[in-house]
Amino acid sequence: MAKQMAFYFDARACTACKACQAACMDRANLAEEARWRRIVQYGGGSWVPVGNLMVPNHVFNYALSISCMHCENPICVTVCPSTALYKRAEDGIVLVDPNKCIGCRYCEWACPYGAPQFDQVTGVMSKCDFCQDLLASGQNPACVDACVMRCLDYGDLSELRAKYGDFNEIAPLPKSDLTGPSFVVTPHKNAEVSGFETGKIINLPEEV
Amino acid sequence: MNVSEWALILFTILGQMSVGAFLILGVVHFFAARKAGTEEADRLTDRALYAILPVMVLAFLASFLHLGHIANAPKAVTNLATSWLSREILFGVVFAVVAFLFAFLQWRKIGSFVVRSIVAVVAGLIGIGLVFSMSSVYMMETQPAWNTFFTPLQFSVTTLLLGALALGAAFVANYAYIKSKMPDCAEVQCELLRGIMRWIAIGSIVLLGVEFIAIPMYLALLASKGGEAADSASLMLNNFGVVFGFRLFLAFLGAGVFGLFISQSALNPGKEKLLSYFAYSAFVLVLAAEILGRFLFYATRVQIGV
Known about the structure:
The structure holds two protein chains of two kinds.
Chain A: E1 5-10, H1 19-28, E2 38-50, E3 53-66, H2 75-79, E4 85-87, E5 94-96, H3 106-110, E6 117-118, E7 125-126, H4 132-136, H5 142-146, E8 152-156, H6 157-164, E9 183-186, E10 200-201
Parallel strand pairs in A: 1-9
Antiparallel strand pairs in A: 1-8, 2-3, 2-10, 4-5, 6-7
Chain B: H1 3-36, H2 38-64, H3 84-108, H4 113-138, H5 150-181, H6 186-225, H7 227-239, H8 241-265, H9 272-299
Helix pairs in contact in B: 1-2, 1-4, 1-5, 1-9, 2-3, 2-5, 2-6, 3-4, 4-5, 5-6, 5-9, 6-7, 6-8, 8-9
């Protein structure tokens, strides 16, 4: 099997501090609206009155650090009308060619991970490029190095799976058969499985 | 909802209206020619034909407003292998070119009737391909509200309904022109016009019925699917309930009530003035209804994932 670059995320340890997101925006010099990596906070449950007390009823909340999943079957590449989005053969990284992109934002509608981001300045899409320049010089992606809680790791997908298992269907992510995300996650203790959600994304709309 | 989505509303509505008008014009011409000869049929339909292309061009101009980087627009047809969006653009461009070719041949009366008919049939088939690819663009697994039977059905109904009523408006305008310029042929034209308008009215009422049966079925389907699909149904009925209700009301008024008025006033000669007011009103009301419907189509999508 050819090499496939992938991210690992430990949902047990993430505190949703957004250092990864900030490091990513800093490294890629992104405008405020364009976020290649985002923190998605997911929660649910309720409080029920018992006598004079309010008792938590399965109240939970956990965070996911989400970037492009560099999918096995990237739906963005399939739908892109101008072949601007492509999957690099040697390492499976999904990239966008700004010289081909027409800025129609169709990939935005297709991607269930919100990976392609519209750049208001250039009028074309931009997305996580796996810090390919840093990788080429032997360094880690900016998000991985920035994580205070050491939640993020990266590497070849098969190696990550050997190390951390192959679970990736954590709510609120969609089921993995849709696009085959190159992603491994260690679930939070209260994690829900994709397709069986009872909670909802609790970020403010402008945060994700 | 922003400028770029209004661009898509205009592009899809105007594109579908052009295709619908072109298809129905062909049918109208066929029957008019059988009844009153090719010359009278041409007189009835030619001016309406010339109006179709500017509408299609307007649709394309609107679609450009949707792009972030217009200079790269020609590259939009480079992924025909997998992208329905590429196919949509290609079908749109080819439809416009072949429809223009046909309009030009028809204008100059170049080539035999058979040759022109073949060009027209080819343009019509490409137009059907355009509406099909338009619906396929939206039928993605990650957009549950769009990935149902309703997208191609609604697009087809819009195509035929707006096409028919736009033609109705064009025909009454054309008749008024003919009556003022060429009074000697107005009688045959009047006879043809009344016959056609009756069929346009009946067709519109039937299409309205299809729409009114399909919409509740669609909402029930979304609700039964749960998840993001049910969220879309809830957006339609709760957040956008007023717009949704108004859209149904306008469609009912335009295609239903005014459709009935058209078919009644077309029964007897001498009511052409009234007929033309009804035809214009029906077109404007249904155009507004379909634009609101398309607005809701974009406004109520709920994407799966994060």
